[in-house]
Amino acid sequence: MSDTTAEAPSIEGRTVALLVTDGVELPELTEPLAAIRDAGGTAKIVSPKKESLQAMSGDWEHADHFGVDHQLGTVGAEDFDALVLPGGTLNADALRVDEQAREFVAGFFEDSKPVAAICHGPWILTEVGQVSGRRMTSVGALRTDLVNAGADWVDEEVVVDRGLVTSRTPADLEAFDAALLKLVAERG
What we know:
Layout: E1 15-19, E2 24-25, H1 26-38, E3 42-47, E4 52-57, E5 61-67, E6 70-71, E7 82-85, H2 89-96, H3 99-110, E8 115-118, H4 123-127, E9 135-136, H5 143-148, E10 152-153, E11 158-161, E12 164-167, H6 173-186
Parallel strand pairs: 1-3, 1-7, 2-4, 3-6, 7-8, 8-12, 9-10
Antiparallel strand pairs: 4-5, 11-12
Helix pairs in contact: 1-6
């Protein structure tokens, strides 16, 4: 269980990218956005989309639209202090096959910057070779993919392994956000 009494660390002066496209799971985008901003950080939406994207409630129901701060190809890992990979089946599936998205994600690992992925978000990590030998979690549907890519998959609320935070579902967002903020503050 997460410690809800602990005050979030300050990440003032740090900028966190959230890589998303159409189909992102609404709370997996909005709650980390709010947590980053509440901790004094700057959150930027990065997407293959140019102007706006469609979030979803679950995989079937359209939710809010969100403006895009930076289109993929115009920024890189060097422009940010950390990366968040929200889930949503459609979002995660589209991003894992997008070459620019894979290059963007790989840059954070090359630069040893914190990465946090929730639900289906870790799917792209199999494509950029960042799963093997890591202890991690995800939505249950990704278990076989992650294990086949070499992960030590566990069914836990949040897992932190060598600069990578992973969580299972929106029910774990409080612990996910807390682990993300702690890692960003420590890497400051």
